[in-house]
Design brief:
The chain has no helices and 11 strands. The chain has 129 residues and is mainly beta. The termini are far apart.
Length: 129
């Protein structure tokens, strides 16, 4: 089992940047494929970005492609989401998630909530227009 704790959220003006962190503890971090999701008020939780267990493969939602960058530092057991050129519509609670990787698979990044085993508690990002 792994525990996930997000941090780095806050209030930022449109066009600004934030970097979210997700600290993992409990098991070997490199055993997990990771992802970021977000949920805006009154909306369903949606996929933002994903990264493979090795870090070699990343995938983004169209709405954030070119603005957000997902990365991981296995030495620090930490997942990151660098968010640039923030827009009002990026306002949401951001969650990190982990999926156990038990054996080599063809599919290495995951974009749906049901594919993840563990979730953090979320961190609020508010972008003022």
């Amino acid at each position: 089992q792994v525990q996930l704790v997000e941090s780095g959220g806050g209030l930022v003006q449109a066009g600004g940047s934030l970097r979210l962190s997700c600290a993992a503890s409990g098991r070997t971090f490199s055993n997990y494929a990771m992802g970021w999701f977000r949920q805006a008020p009154g909306k369903e939780r949606e996929f933002v970005a994903a990264i493979s267990w090795s870090g070699a493969t990343t995938y983004y939602a169209d709405s954030v492609k070119g603005r957000f960058t997902i990365s991981r530092d296995d030495d620090k057991n930490t997942l990151y989401l660098q968010m640039n050129s923030l827009k009002f519509e990026d306002t949401a609670v951001y969650y990190c998630a982990a999926r156990t990787v038990k054996a080599p698979t063809i599919k290495v990044v995951y974009t749906t909530q049901s594919e993840y085993d563990y979730w953090g508690q979320g961190t609020q990002v508010t972008v003022s227009s």
